[in-house]
Structures are given as C-alpha cells and as structure tokens.
Amino acid sequence: MASPLLSVRDLTTVIRTEGIEFEVVRGVSFDMYPNEILGLVGESGCGKTMTALSVMGLIPSPAARIAGGEVRFGDRDLVSLPEREMREVRGDDISMIFQDPLTSLDPMFSIGHLLTEVIRRHRSVSRPEAEAMALQALAEVELPDPETRMSQYPHQLSGGMRQRVMIAMALMLDPDILIADEPTTALDVTVQAQILDRLLGQQRRRGMSMLLITHDLGVVAAVADRVAVMYSGEIVEQAPVGQLFSDPQHPYTQGLLRAVPQTRHQRGALHTIPGRVPPPQFVPPGCPFSPRCSQALVRCWEEHPELVPDDGRHLRCFNPRPLTPA
Amino acid sequence: MRYLASRTVYMLVILAISSVAVFYAIRLSGGDATAARLPASATEADRETLREVLGLNDPIYQQYFTYMGRLLSGDLGNSLTNNALISKMVVEHGRNSIILGAAAFLLVFLVGVPLGMLASVRRNTLADQGIMSLSVAGMAVPNFWLALLSIWLFASVLRWLPSAGCCEPRQLILPAIVLAAEGTALTVRMTRSAMLENLDSDWVRTLRAGGLSESRVIGKHVFRNALIPIISLAGLRIGQIVGYALIVEVIFGWPGLGQVLVNAVLRRDYPVAQFFSLVLVVMVVLGNWLADLGYLAANPRLRKT
Ligand SMILES: Nc1ncnc2c1ncn2[C@@H]1O[C@H](COP(=O)(O)OP(=O)(O)OP(=O)(O)O)[C@@H](O)[C@H]1O
Ligand SMILES: [Mg+2]
C-alpha cells in the first residue's frame, strides 16, 4: 500500500471541567490514504468529534488539550506545529465539514464574503479572482443559482443549501484531506442522499482522502473503504469495509451491526446493546466495554486490551467470537 | 421596511402619548403658577386675572389643544419668571446639553465596547476581573454621589479640574464622565457577554477551520455579531443619559436643558417646564428611533425579506 497521507498515533485528548481532567480521546491511531474513505463510527459521546477536532487543532480551549500522540502529515507533526503554521494547513490542506449547517455559517456576512475571505486567507488572489473561485466551488456542489447565492446571507438559504456552501468552502482550495463530521445528520432525509452524493462525487474526482464520521452504518457500508469503530474514546476495531461487515470480531461492532435495521445480520426484532457509553469521567478499568459485553471474561474486567493488528484488521478484544446468527 | 415603518409609527404614538402625559403631569403637580410671575404681595384678584389671561382656568384638555396648536405654529411662549423667549432658551441651553450628552454617549461606547471586548478575550484573567469589578462599581454607585466624589477628589483635593461651570473642554470632563459612568458599566457587561456568547457559536469553528486567525475571527466576525445587541440597547443608553442629565447638570452647574428644567419646575414656571420636558421626551424617543434604524441597518436578517 502507498504511504499514508496522514498518520495518527496514540492521540490522547483530555478535557478539564470543574477541576477534574478526563480523557475523551484515548490513544487513537489510524492512517489515511489518498483517494480513500475511512469511516469512523460509534455511539454518541464516544469521542468521534473530539478525535476530528484534535486532528484539526480545533479542540475547545482552554477546556481541552492534547495530552499525547502525534498527527503526522507529510514531514510535520500537526500536534506540535505552531498555531501560526497550523492555520496555513487548516482549510487549505485539511478541511472539515461540521454537523449542523444551520448554525455553522456566520449570519452577518454574505456567502460570497465568507468564501472569498477564506480563499484570500490562503491564496494571494484579487477579490474578483477569489469570487470566481468561490462561484466555481458553489457550482461544483450543484448549489442552484450560485451567482445569486453569493450575495445572499446564510438565513436566506435552506439547510441543504447551507451544507452545500459548507462543502464548497471545504473543497474550494483542493485539500488533501477532508474530515466530514456527520455531514448529513441534520438534514431532511431526501436532501441527505443528494448531499452525500455531491460529497462522494467530489471526493472521487479529486482523489481526496476523506474521514467520514457518521452514525449511519448503512452509509458506511455503501461508501467507505475502511472502517474504524470507536468506543469510549478508543478505536476498538478497524478493518476494510467488507471484512468488517461480513465478519465483525469485536462484540461492540457486532452489537452495532445487529442494531441496524435491514441488514443481513438482522433476525427478528431489532437488537440494541444494553447499557450506555460510560461518561469519560467514569470509564471502568479493564476493557471499557466489559460492563455491556455479553462475552466478557474476568480478564476483561481487570486488564485493558491493546489494539492488535491481524491480517489487515486491528482488534482490541480478549475474547472475540465470530458472529453467530442469533 | 415593515420593521422600519412599524418603528416609526410606534415612535409617533409614543410622542403623542408622552406630550399628553407631560402636559397633565405639570398641570396636576400642584403649586401656583402665578407665583412665578407675580410678587408675593400680589392679591388673589390679581392672581385670578393672570390665570384667566393664561387660560389656566380652562379644562385641561382644552388647554392642551390650545397649547399644541401654538406649538405647531411655532409659538413657544415666554418664561413666566423673566419673560425670556422659550425658543431662544431652547437653542442656547440645548446646545450645551447636546455637547454634554454627545460626549457622554461617545464615552459610553468608545470606552465600554473596547473594555468589554478586552474582558471577553481575556476571560477569567486578572484583566477580566478588574474590568468587571469596575463595572459593578460603575453600576452600583449612584450618579449624584459619583458627581460629588469626583468634585471632591479632582477639583478640591487634586485641583486638576474645575468643579463646575461651562463651557470649556476642561469643564466638560467631569460631568461627561459622571454622566457616562453607569451606561459605560452596562455596555462593558453587555459587550462581554455578547462576545462570549458568539465565541461559543458553531460558525466560529467553521471560520477557524478555514484557517482564519484568532484576531480575524474575534475582531471581525465575533465583534460584528456582538454589535447587534449593543446597538439595540443604544436607545436605552440615550434615555439614561437624558434622564441623568437633570442631576448632573445641576450638580456641575452645566447650563443645559436639564438644569433649566429643574429650575423651572421648582419655580412653577410651567411654560418652560412643559416645553423643556417635551424636548427631553422627543430626544429620548428620537434616540430610540435612531437606535432602531441602526439595528435595522446592522442586521442582515432584518434588512431583506
Ligand atoms: N466542551 C466539552 N466539555 C466537556 N466535555 C465535552 C466537551 N465536548 C465534548 N465533551 C465530552 O467528550 C466526549 C466525546 O464527545 P464527542 O463530541 O467527541 O462525541 P461524538 O462521538 O462526536 O458524539 P456524537 O455522535 O454525539 O457527535 C463526550 O463524552 C462529551 O460529553
Ligand atoms: Mg460528534
């Protein structure tokens, strides 16, 4: 395989609230390759957004800080990169799309103003040139009537249109890497498919590397090349998409798959995983999933499993068992 | 445009209602208007004749319409105490008041907004705590007390500034600061909380993700959003300044509308009291209307449909 564009190693991010400090991202490692989509899935609160923000250097300060690990991008480590240089990377080499398009655009400025401001931040082009670039980017995400939209304000656009603007903003400088954090969750179901389609079209056309964060395993199965499953701040299983869906090994992954309606794993009633993700302040010792795991051993309660590579797959489990059709 | 029209209609209605209220308040406040004009030795018969001449025996609503009719034809009448033309008094004292009020208004925003921004950017540091303590003090200390304190300190003890008078710049400093104190304190708090609220919004993250610098994100975008509530409360600040001008002008011997009004009320010089009250009301209402216009102009969500 080609060398990775971005290599995340043992990334650990802590948040401090009311005097106590806890880890929300715990030793996360993954690689991103050109022209590839890595899906990142997991229940709400497991640290997907925090992982993405840590890579971008956008974790909320001063509440959060990166306590360890590396984010290798080319010959640089983004974690230790000075903020001034990191700003050059953001929006230009690595872009991010956020979950809620309704609140993600500054309401006081026109779409054209916002887009050209970012362009001119990274490229020394004249205002008309920047406007032409922005217009082009809006046209590429198939925003209807882009000339008019340029002079409109965010409140004049629908949620779907605003998300197209966000995508255009993220793509207009041709980044190497795009992080999309639940890019369609907040949108109408009918619009979701269109937006996802635009996003994938652009990803393929540009040969971009994409980190797709989502709750929707159906989407992941359809578009991702590899999938990482996160639980309680850790990656518990990572594998090529076919392998993960046909032969999930981690009991948590198996639980997630069983909870998806209309998959071949489903027999009878919709399955749910009992219990909830532990809040990061109260992660149990041993395997964090052990309290909810149906096949936990005594060892799982006492010892913390490592992420072990095995034939293209990475697994963090002492007692994996093949999925048995229930 | 609907917004603009409705604010304008609202302003006119408030003006009409307040003119009635001012008129009735002065008529009903008791006291004898003839005392202002006639010597203490005047007989009751003389007084009665004067009341008749001035129309004071007519029903109040009738007096109101007579008065408004004269006003609209440009006849403001004369002072009862020295027979001065009210139109001349308004121009002369109005100028002084506007100088003082404008100075205070500028202070409120040119000091309050930057301090509020500084406090928000340096949140929870010593600078923030210092600024916020000052602003608590600014809100808690009553105006007249601050006036006396500042006269004592800067005029009597330090002898840096004159204690009273008009209309040199040096004489403007103390009254303007006292007049601006509470509004500045409120503006500091408002600016700080508006900045912090906007700093937390999702779009700030988008701009950062686009690689914009913190100074750009905060100085341009967050500030631009925080400006909306600041402008929307500028009208209140104007009202506050006009109201406090009564006290501050009297204490500092600044011959503005407020000082004349207070004297006129004390002397039952009702034509002066009446008109000067109306002028102050008009200033407040007009100030609010201008603030509404500013709010409209600053807010793209209201500008277009
Ligand atoms: N600003 C913050 N202060 C305190 N805790 C936070 C903050 N932001 C996130 N957290 C905590 O960090 C953990 C990880 O949050 P994160 O947003 O990364 O989860 P997520 O996997 O993206 O969830 P979702 O699917 O709901 O978006 C959560 O337990 C959350 O409560
Ligand atoms: Mg999230």
Kindly summarize this structure in a few lines.
Helices cover 32% and strands 23% of the residues of chain A. Chain A is α/β, with parallel strands linked by helices. Chain A has 2 domains: 1-90 and 225-326, Rossmann fold (3-Layer(aba) Sandwich), CATH 3.40.50.300; 101-214, Rossmann fold (3-Layer(aba) Sandwich).
Describe, in plain words, how this protein is organized in 3D.
By secondary structure, chain A is of the alpha/beta class. Helices cover 32% and strands 23% of the residues of chain A. With 305 residues, chain B is an all-alpha fold. Chain B has two domains: 2-72, no CATH class; 92-303, MetI-like (MetI-like fold, Orthogonal Bundle), CATH 1.10.3720. Chain B contains 14 helices and no strands. Chain B has helices spanning 2-28, 34-37, 44-54, 60-72, 86-121, 126-140, 143-157, 169-199, 202-209, 214-232, 234-251, 257-266, 270-298, 300-303. The chains are: A alpha/beta (326), B mainly alpha (305). Chain A binds chain B through residues 56, 58, 87-92, 95-96, 98, 100, 103-110, 114, 117-118, 121-122, 153, 155-156, 166, 169-170, and chain B through 201-203, 205-213, 216, 221, 224-225, 228, 300-301, 304. Residues 15, 17, 24, 42, 44-50, 60, 63, 279-280 of chain A line the site of adenosine-5'-triphosphate.
CATH homologous superfamily of the largest domain in chain B? MetI-like
Helix content of chain B: over 70%
CATH class of the largest domain in chain B: Mainly Alpha
What's the gyration radius of chain B in Å?
Answer: 24 Å
What is the terminal separation of chain A in angstroms? Answer: 37 Å
For the record, the CATH class of the largest domain in chain A is: Alpha Beta
Please specify the SSE layout and strand pairing.
The complex is a heterodimer of chains A (326) and B (305).
Chain A: E1 6-17, E2 20-32, E3 37-41, H1 48-56, E4 64-73, E5 76-77, H2 83-89, E6 94-97, H3 111-122, H4 127-140, H5 146-150, H6 159-171, E7 177-181, H7 189-206, E8 209-213, H8 217-223, E9 226-231, E10 234-240, H9 241-246, H10 251-258, H11 298-302, E11 308-310, E12 313-315
Parallel strand pairs in A: 3-8, 3-9, 6-7, 7-8
Antiparallel strand pairs in A: 1-2, 1-4, 4-5, 9-10, 10-12, 11-12
Helix pairs in contact in A: 3-4, 4-6, 6-7
Chain B: H1 2-28, H2 34-37, H3 44-54, H4 60-72, H5 86-121, H6 126-140, H7 143-157, H8 169-199, H9 202-209, H10 214-232, H11 234-251, H12 257-266, H13 270-298, H14 300-303
The complex binds adenosine-5'-triphosphate (ATP) and magnesium ion.
